[in-house]
Amino acid sequence: MVDTTDLRRERLTVEKKKTLDIREPAERDYDRILYSSALRRLGGVTQVVAAHEGHVFHNRFTHSMRVSQLARRLAQKLIRQTPHLAQEAGGIDPNVAEAASLAHDLGHPPFGHIAEEELGDCVEKGDSLGDEYRSLDAFEGNAQSFRIVTKLALSSPHVPGLNLTRATLNALLKYPWPRQEGHHKKKYGFYQSEEKEFNFARELHAPRDIRKCAEAEIMDWADDVTYALHDADDFYRAGLIPLDRLASLDDDSERRRFFDGIYQRPGLKKKMEGETRAEVERIFEDVIRMFPISEPYIGTQQQRERLRWSSSFLIGRFVGAIELRNPISTDQPFVTISPREKIEVAILKALTWFYVIYNPSLATQQYGQRKIIRELFHIFGNAAVSKKDEERNIIPFAFQEAFRQADGDNSAVVRLVADLIAGMTEQGLVKLYKRLTGTDMGSVLDYIRGD
Fold first, then answer.
1. Which site in 1, 16, 91, 185 is 20 to 30 Å from 371, CA atoms measured?
2. Residue 197 and residue 52: Cα distance in Å, rounded?
3. CA of 132: how far to CAs of 33, 127, 329, 416, 420, in Å?
């Protein structure tokens, strides 16, 4: 295997390293991401349910911090366990896995996947601006994360974006391909506007090799594990997921209701890796018994201790489920995950889908969220192409210069409108929507931010 260490450390824009800077290149990447306003914004972005609901739910910032910590531990485990396979995979660096994982949700818009769908539709169709403003790249959270670190986030007046190393950019590419006309992929890793940066990152791979790198695989598993465990914890505490009834030895009615719901929804059923319902139920019974819980959550010390123990035990279990492999072709990934643990994580994630995401109470919120996203896109889109100063002045200062530079480039205009909306917090977005629609006029002393 060719040593790619120097190639992995390169940045698209060459920088002169400060003499007293003792950090490794990927450690500098991590610090740039950590101090970016794009990461700070995630504290005001929903994980599943907004923090202002009254419970201390995880948000996208706390989720990202935990994913990055777990990814680092996974990378360390794999290097220690099979160092020769880590080298054969092109090199694994815990700093790279940690940095990419910290950045993986930067492109997650306010209101989550609902906004992702609405923004995608608005960008692809050009909204009310006309067909000439259509962009077939649409909108995708992973591609937006890549755009943020390469173009939108600020680190220095002398370099674009955060100017991350090739290795960290590559590790961020969970879906290392574009969205192409004729066979649109629901998930993709970059827009055509960032094709140069994508090609730079993928020089670590052979041509036509569309596998994600080992560090991206690590990030992906850390994301799944964190999502599965911490959402189950959150929503049990909030009274939405009845872990006590699901774990009951005397009454299996709640488990049957849960599994009936899973197998009535093809999307959830598909995630069970083709196993029979009987086998999945048996696996779930084993997993749920790892939560020694027999009553609804009221916050006793014993309940909190048991939840902490359960999460710690299961994280250890899922860390042990990932291993490196020596792939014999580009059709095989660099890592393998035990099928049993993969199903366990899928079932835990299904709890959130069944009890929270499919809940009619959340559905009514999402209906309003879609309306906010679409109307703001319409308002800002028309302001961006307007020749009237009073209409263009509603665009936040942070974006006005970018819109002036994009004048005449239709696809760039709709992309910037998406950037503006996707880069706000949820409370900021709702506040701005109320102001622009006359629902709540706010104050002239309010500073309208665009970051």
1. 185
2. 37
3. 35, 10, 42, 15, 20
Residue pair 96/68 in contact (Cβ under 8 Å)? The answer is no
Burial status of residue 407 (CB atoms within 10 A of its CB: 0-12, 13-18, 19 or more): exposed
The pLDDT confidence band at residue 447, using thresholds 50, 70 and 90, is low
| First-residue to last-residue Cα distance in the chain | 43
Nearest to 348 by CA among 219, 214, 218, 247: 247
Nearest in space to 200 (alpha carbons), one of 333, 13, 445, 414: 13
Q: What's the CA gap between 240 and 359, in Å, rounded?
A: 10
Task: Look up tokens 């591609």; give the residue.
Answer: 143
The token duo for 58 is 């995880």
* Residue 293 CB neighbour total at 10 angstroms: 22
Cα 20 to Cα 9, 23, 24, distances in angstroms = 18, 9, 12
Distance of CA 60 to the CA centre of its chain: 8
| Distance between CA atoms of residues 302 and 308, nearest Å | 10
Decide if 253 contacts 298 (C-beta within 8 A).
no
Q: Which amino acid is at 273?
A: E
For residue 257, list its beta bridge partners.
none
Task: Give the whole-angstrom CA distance, residue 119 versus residue 381.
Answer: 12
d(CA 434, CA 3): 56
Closest CA to 97 of 67, 63, 138, 119: 67
Residue with tokens 């929503």: 235
pLDDT digits (tens, 9 = 90+) for 161-202: 999 999 999 999 999 999 975 555 689 999 999 999 999 999
Residue 173, Ramachandran bin (φ over 0: left; ψ between -120 and 50: alpha; else beta): beta
| Residue 405, CA atoms < 13 Å, CB-side half-sphere | 7
